[in-house]
Amino acid sequence: MTWSDSDKSVGAYALRLGDDALVLAQRTGEWIAAAPELEEDVALGNIALDLLGQARSLLSYAGETDGSGRSEDDLAYLRDEREFVNAQLVELPNGGFAVTMARLLVFAAYQYELYDRLRESRDETLAAVAAKAVKEVAYHRDHATQWVRRLGDGTDESRRRMQAGLDTVWPYVFELVESDDLVRDLAGAGLAVDPAELQGPVMGYVSGVIDEATLVVPQTSVRHTGGRRGIHTEHMGYLVAEMQHLARSHPGAVW
Amino acid sequence: MTQSAGSDLSAEGGHGAVPTTGVLATSGRPVRGWPLWEVFVRPRRGLSHGHVGSLHAPDAQMALRNARDLYSRRQEGVSIWVVPAGQISASSPDEKDTFFDPAGDKVYRHPTFYDVPEGVEHL
Hints:
The complex is a heterodimer.
Chain A lengths: L4 H25 L8 H28 L6 H6 L19 H22 L5 H29 L3 H14 L11 H8 L10 H14 L23 H14 L6
Helix pairs in contact in A: 1-2, 2-5, 4-5, 4-6, 4-8, 5-6
Chain B lengths: L8 E2 L7 E2 L3 H5 L8 E7 L7 E7 L3 H12 L7 E6 L11 H5 L23
Antiparallel strand pairs in B: 1-2, 3-4, 3-5
């Protein structure tokens, strides 16, 4: 069997979406046993597992379609930092709870709009993954919305922290809605969603929540980017090392 | 904490029946930040909501969401109720004898006690 350029492009696209989900699953999982309350521990654990499920489907598909024959585990555990093509937002350290909620608000809003449109993809696998995942991320978005509202419109201290959380993640949110030739070509063929068309709806939703929370949309001209080309923040290497340590120390181990 | 009117006992604390007064002040432990909620889940349409457990949450909306995460992870339900535990009036274990024992020898309260006369239909 041979792989067309179109297949390889779909594989590269699935790898981006899969890496976003995988890396945020890893980050979110760090909260387990460390969240402010037991109930929040479980909620964040559920969200991390939802994301990991999405990552498994997307990485498996990426390995099938890019012609490399790599499995989901090969892709998750045996690539080096520069080979990951996730957006930098998802690799940022969790920071405080408010930083984590600010990131989840933006990222889930992005994923919701993305998957909602990707359900119509001419690629049946991507459409099926999106149809399942859109319900999951709708819940993630709601969870973050509830907390941003409460913390923003809460005490002086919670308000200060929530605003600081938004300010921390804001320089990284625009990378999510960047286009390049790969996604534009795939979108033109009805296979993918051009991230540029998500900017309006995502920012509309997020700024609506920020407004309700009596907070302000951060004003910054700083926009970090490069994740889709394998350029990452200084935090990514540590995340990859921790995520891959077991699989690399015990190659082929199963349980 | 809200006390239930006309009762000395509530479900607050998650142990079925505890006094609504005097406990928190004398227990010597700090009061938890979030109030307790009792969770009721309806497994299917047509069945009643049943009590499944309790959880802590800052308000009703978050209690519903926490309940979804804690008690419907395996598709246990189609509907969830949450009730502030302090709002539930509970019977006292001390009153067990007067509350429940008298029903013990009233066999005629069971439909199987009665012989159904021949010829009666649709019963």
